[in-house]
Amino acid sequence: MYSTPPLSNSRFQIILPELQTITLYDGTRVNIIEKPTAGLVTIKVIFHTGNVNGTVPGAIAFMAELLTRRTKCKDAVQWNTYIEQRGCTIAATTSHSNVVFTGTGLAEHFSFLVDALGECLGQPGLNEIELERLKLQWITEAHINHSDPEWLAGRAMHIACYGNHRYGTPVRGNVVNMEEHTIQGQWEAYRTMVSAQRDIVVTGPLSSDDVAATVRNLLHDFPTPRPSGLPDDVREVPHTAVVAGIPDALQTVYSIAMPAVGYHHPDYARLLLVTTVLGGYSLARLFMELRERKAYTYGAYSELIVRRYSAITIITTAVGSEYSADALDSIADIVHELAAAPIPAEELHNAKQFLLGEFLRRTETAGQLADLIQTGVIHELPWSFFADSLQHLQNATPEDLLSVQHTYLTPDQWSIGVSGNPSQLMDAVGRHSGGVRLWEPDVSDTEE
Q1: Predicted confidence (pLDDT) per residue in 75-94, tens digit
Q2: Which label site among 61, 99, 123, 406 has the fewest CB atoms less than 10 Å from its CB?
Q3: CATH of the domain at 136
């Protein structure tokens, strides 16, 4: 006869690989993890600047993408052949406050990757033809986004939550911004980026001495880094709602933001746990109520989003239009109920186990470790932060969490973004906000 083994209640000890940091002659930090079992190597160059520091919306995102498409010495075909014939990749990702260039490949190609990144960053091939091609591509994608109810709900939430702050705008800017980009503006964005403070991250089967010797001259022609100016204060706008109107829509998509705290706040680990209980996985309350009990949706989730200068808890779901009002009522009831009472022991245990497993799955490869270091570098966290947070999480009791539930589960402070049929939403959403306005999405709008 078969039986189910009991779940473990023992504390899990998180031991991450040692992080070594060296500082180059210009103050650039090189953060290294030697992962001898990895066949691949990942190298990241992180620049601490972005739209939030005052550049033209989207300019840095355009410039960073263009840098990865060609160089001064190689056109697009030559550059792609140069990278891909060795099985390597080089890509750029841009947020409102950072630009990250990532190279990956076999460990034997590490020196090649460093040289390629040096050419990509130090010999920019900013070119009018490539700029026009990228404009066409991203403007087309913007039109596609404006027909996507989930994207529109997210935009509506950011407009409601952040107003005119840069966090309320798309990283790429809007179509008007895209159309106005020039090569001169791209060079200005490039000069802003290369003057910013920066970090290098390397993970893979390489010794720290080898890494230091190889990357020493990667950025040797760059200006001495200086801090970027601080952005305008981020003031989330509480208890507001924006409806992205889609006449005759058959679906309603909600994206709801509540004020939260970032990594440095003592409540962070406990809030992460509470957010997981609310909607972080398939046993969470939002999922169980809206999907399993009411069958309104395929999924309903919550997530703690930490940016460099802001943090919010986001609730997302999509339901049939006929369920719009009751779905929002149900979300509000679930949040109020979780805010009011201690979390049962079994429910709390399940959420802890999920978070532990998720963290471990995100630290298996050299690339995943590089992403973890990137988070620490951007947010100025000690390497011990991640293991310490997981210990705090494991040690949390229902009584420890109750004050966090009271403080941060606050429907009277949330900002609602929603896309759908306005005739079915304005009154329903208005009951859960201090003010609701209709936004009629236009791909060329400049409201953000």
Answers
A1: 999 999 999 999 999 999 99
A2: 406
A3: 3.30.830.10
Please identify every stretch of the chain with a pLDDT value under 70, giving residue numbers as ranges.
1-12, 54, 229-237, 443-448
Range of the domain at 400: 241-439
pTM as predicted: 0.92
Burial 233-248 (b: 16+ CB within 10 A, else e): ebebbbbbbbbbbbee
Final residue before a domain boundary, out of 180, 199, 215: 215
Domain assignment of residue 228, yes or no:
no
> Whose CA is closest to 228, among 55, 67, 24, 45?
55
pLDDT for 448: 40
Residue 445: inside a domain: no
Q: Tell whether 291 and 362 lie within a shared domain.
A: yes
